[in-house]
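Give me structure tokens for this 271-residue protein.
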Amino acid sequence: MVKDIIKYPTPLSVEYATDVRVFDDALFSLIEDLKDTITQNNLNGLSAFQIGSYYNVIVVKNDDGELLELINPRLIAHNGSVTTEESTAYYPGHSAKIKRYENISVVYQDRNAKDCSLKASGALAIVIQRKIDYTFGATFIHKMSKQERESFEKRLEYGADLGSSDYCPTNFQRDKIVLGMNLILGAMALAFIAALFIQNPALLQNIWQAMLYASATVVILDIIYFFYAQYEGKKYVSCNSCQIGNIIGTASVILFKLGVIMLLSYFFVYQ
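Here you go.
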């Protein structure tokens, strides 16, 4: 029987899968459910965890398309490493680069409770490792570094793969340039306010000179922001239409703020 596959954000159990001790019709029915679900969804493997069972059972498709039944699988040896682009039914529409063992040796039992062993490499080794992860209540996200995991979680939040035409982030690197310009403008505004209480002409002249340098810095940063923001926006096709107006507006607002501060400073600070 085809079963529903558990998908994000429904959590998987963080407990270990329970080893099979009784090889009966209930187990055989579970295995057939896994096979039917794999075939129906055109998958290369499933863990029992993925259809709501806590038994340590996985079914994977080998290189010949045959479905292999692995009961109580254990990874006992490995060598080599390879980084592949992986996807899983738990995170539909998402993929990630994951480092795996290139060659593995696995021991398991068949449906007759007979002890078996298997050596695998390439795609079969990858899918077996991924399905064994599920028997520990884990997904490939647990194989990522902290930075990689944060990036992947952002993809889940936005609902699209980074770099795809449907993805448009809300935070950009260009925002750091805007932050820098606003900090300079804030310092200039404080300097202007302080200058209103200063009577020393020499000190006022120094403040005016400092503001001229600061204003030149803001103008240069604003130009850099304008062109870099367009370059960054082109990475995301869906951002072009909605972000160009924001880019122009942000650059214009920065220049307006600078103009107001410098105009007031000219009349009240410059002497």
